[in-house]
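Hey, resending since the last one bounced:
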Amino acid sequence: MQIKTLEARSGLPRDTLRFYERSGLITPPRRLPNGYREYDEHTLAELKFISAAREVGFTLAEIKKAIPHLKSPPDQCIDLLEGLLGRRQAVVEQIALSRRQLRRLDQLIKRFFRQ
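The structure tokens again:
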């Protein structure tokens, strides 16, 4: 597929796609005789993974380490699974912290403004 189709299917702008390509985050596309890039379905899967990983807080450096594991069967992606589980635990801890902060804010509001 050409970059225009990849843009539409991934939901990412062309500049981002080219940046990910230059950064080595996605598999380099095949070049057609006319010089156009031709992307495949695996590249689309990589982009969807990158978007999802960014959404949950992974850095591009962390994502770059995980991308090669996408080609492996799921049972061989222990490093990827560990990274996902680690990020999940960090989110759980952040939620707990936010809940504590919210309770404390409620206490302060009640104490000082609801006399």
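The helical segments are 3-10, 14-22, 41-55, 60-66, 78-113.

Sorry for the duplicate.
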